[in-house]
Amino acid sequence: MADADADFQLSSDASDFEGFDEADYNNQVARPMPNESDISLSDIPSSSEEDSEDGDRVIAPNADINNRTWRSLDLNNPGMRPKHPFTGANPGCTLNFAGNYTEKDFFFQFFTPECLEIVAEETNRYARQQQALKGPDPYWVPTTAAEITQYIGIRIFMSVVHLPTNDMYWSQDWLFGKFFIPNILKRDRFDKLQQYLHVSNNEENPAHGQPGHDKLYHVRPGV
Question: Most buried residue, 14, 92, 121, 219, by most Cβ within 10 Å?
Fold first, then answer.
């Protein structure tokens, strides 16, 4: 578990990204975040509503396609009405890009401390549920939000640097890069987190075919 709290460490010729450690997570918890978006899922029309309202949408007759410029929209003109308009007093990104932000700041815009706490809590819950059904798992120890942060960071790195198998990211062969990942999480620990990773409590979702069953329940907290 000592390795679980280690920093991401990249070689100087690979990247300037230094990774996450528990201090970064704790600092983010105490740091005030920008105002949340006021866009509600209830404001998003269904595909059938979109088809009925904007199915015959045409380009405004006076639109200059070859020389497009910003201009005010006439919402009374169907040809100029945006298909997915932003609504509310402050739509769009609320982050002040004039600040001196790092990769971690943008990461925590998507994965808030509250979100990471939920993932850690539900992952531990699912591990307990599985062990109650299948017996104790001697290789499992409860995870934390800081460790979940490291796990997600590794998954992001894997999505950028592709190797044929996950095991190769822990290889010490220079041919496969000898990445920093082994200094963050051991391979067996990474696999255990991946085995039990959850963001919701399975026991609270009705079975398939039952009233109230939610097909997106497993990812609902992140939707």
Answer: 121
